[in-house]
Amino acid sequence: MNRTDSIWRHFDYILFGTTLILIIFGILMIRSATLGAIDPELISRVPDQIRYAVIGLVLVFVFATIDYRLLGGMHTWLYIIMVGLLILVRFLGVEGDAGSQRWINVGIRIQPSEIGKILIIVTLGHHLAKNYHQLGSLKAVLMSLVHISIPTGLIFIQPNLGTTIVFMVIWFVMIWAAGLRMKHIALFVGVMLIGLPVLYSQMQPYQRSRITTFLNPESDRSAFYNILQARISIGSGGVLGKGYANGTQSQLRFLRVRHTDFIFSVIAEEFGFVGGLTVMGLIGIVISRILRGARMAIDPLGSLICYGVAGIIFFQTVVSIGMNLNMLPVTGLTLPFVSSGGTSLLSILAGIGLAQSVIVRGRRV
Questions:
Q1: pLDDT tens digits, residue range 196-224?
Q2: In what order do the strands lie in the sheet containing 109-110?
Q3: Rounded to 5°, angle at Cα 25 from 23 and 29
Q4: Is residue 346 part of a domain?
Q5: Fewest CB atoms less than 10 Å from the CB: which of 92, 236, 249, 318?
Q6: For residue 67, is it within any domain?
């Protein structure tokens, strides 16, 4: 049997199948959320999501075929490409909501920060794997922070607070998996607490508003409107929901940005508690299969890549659902596989492909 046959024999079809179910369900929910829309941008959301899904599924197989160790060997070039794209946003970026400049138009709009999520997993994974036995040294930990701070800073000034936090979560998850010492954790927690006021002072007004609205809803009723509508949507769905495309809050347009930030509220209203729990369960299966890949990995790089991909999916899921339930501030992070967002979907599926690359080359247990 040749090597290609061996790769596809060990391909994780449970991971792929669960991912496919979530993507199809997401397309159906975006369709429901945009039914009757007259805005051309909203009308195009479903066909755009389908196109990106097809491209993304192809990427899964392409990345699974490529040996992740080859990508690790290209870490310097990947890092330069990532930083270069983020710098390009600064000069040629397309302005979006609230004045944020996050996209580049190359015939289609791409969001380099989403591409950066996957590239940083490979480059940081290589850096940590190379210094695997030196993480007891504070210098090695600080060097990993320097590695991630350059792209993180470029993303923060776009401004894009949500993805900035995702990058820091990626760093923490991967360095924890690599063996971060407890003595360093206390140090960084202290630095973080000291740095929070500085970070807050550098935020855009709309970003500070999201935090103050979360802490004190009465401070800005206009900003709190969407949170209130999301809670009404979730609560009115009950156990089994009102049925597909029958949600009053979404169909009557009370719930804004329902196809992206608040897609979970649409799911809960139309399919109830059972539907919301099912989506969380399916995402949980995806995460567990990727973590299984981390345990099977034949080297630290493969294990760290899987931990990084699982960390992104877990964090974005928790934040997206949390802000729908008013348990966390609104950040604009998408619900993986489900929310509308082309580059976001592509980056997540590229991550699945990377995890598959590790899995098909892992130890057999």
A1: 776 766 667 766 776 776 666 666 666 67
A2: 94-95, 101-105, 109-110
A3: 115
A4: yes
A5: 92
A6: yes
Instruction: Please say whether the beta carbons of 165 and 173 come within 8 A.
Output: no
In the chain, the amino acid numbered 355 is A
Which residue range is the domain that position 53 belongs to?
3-360
For the ranges 116-130, 272-286, 316-330, 349-363, which has the lowest average pLDDT?
A: 316-330
CA 136/CA 145 separation, integer angstroms: 15
Number of domains in the chain: 1
What is the C-alpha separation between 345 and 48, in angstroms, rounded? 11
CA distances for 111 relative to 19, 98, 164, 270, angstroms:
22, 16, 13, 30
Asked if the structure places residue 37 within a domain, the reply is yes
pLDDT tens across 81-90, in order? 999 999 988 8
Collapsed DSSP state (helix, strand, coil) of residue 110: strand
For residue 68, give both structure tokens.
């992740």
CA neighbor of 57 nearest in space, from 353, 287, 310: 353
- Token couple for 345: 């979907």
Tokens coding 90: 């600064």
Spatial distance between the Cα atoms of 255 and 133, rounded to a whole number of angstroms:
51
**Which tokens in the block code for residue 238?**
């009950």
CA distance 349 to 62: 11
- Closest by CA to 247, choosing from 271, 225, 221, 223, is 271
Q: Report if residue 365 sits inside a domain.
A: no
What average pLDDT does range 115-124 have in this prediction? 94
